[in-house]
Amino acid sequence: MITRVVKMTFKPESVQGFKEIFYASQKLICGFDGCNRVDLMRDLNNECVFFTLSYWDSEEDLNSYRQSYLFKNTWSKVKPLFSEKAEAWSLISS
């Protein structure tokens, strides 16, 4: 299983818009082949910093999603809301 962690920092005025986009997309992402779950977490001390954690059966499933229209469409709406470049990690259990 692959865990994908994405850290995103938003402009303060964009936080609500991001949350609306995320919750509108969450079920669609979870329905993508190989996706088991997608969670949204917020930094304890900074209301503008969020993390998504998504859980994938394989790296191939994750990469397939990242090449999909769903990802590209969602990311095109989210990216302009950032105040800093997003960071991402793909992790496996050791």
Strand order of the largest sheet: 2-3-1-4
Assembly state: single chain
CATH architecture: 2-Layer Sandwich
CATH class category name: Alpha Beta
Q: Main beta sheet: strand number and arrangement?
A: 4 strands, antiparallel
Radius of gyration using CA atoms only: 13 Å
At the fold tier of CATH, the topology name is Alpha-Beta Plaits
Poorly predicted regions are none
Q: Structural class from helices and strands?
A: alpha+beta
Strand content: 25-35%
Order of helix and strand elements from N to C terminus: EHEEHHE
Number of domains: 1
Span between N and C termini? 11 Å
Shape: globular
Give the tally of β-strands.
4
Mean pLDDT: 97
Task: Give the number of helices.
Answer: 3
Helix content: 25-40%
Task: Describe what this molecule looks like in 3D.
- The structure is a single chain.
- The chain has 94 residues and is α+β, with helices and mostly antiparallel strands.
- The protein has a single domain (2-91), classed as 2-Layer Sandwich (Alpha-Beta Plaits), CATH 3.30.70.
- It has 3 helices and 4 strands; from the N terminus they run E-H-E-E-H-H-E.
- It has helices spanning 15-30, 59-66, 69-78; strands at residues 2-9, 35-42, 49-56, 87-91.
- It has a 4-stranded antiparallel beta sheet with strand order 2-3-1-4.
- The termini are close together.
- The relative contact order is 0.31.
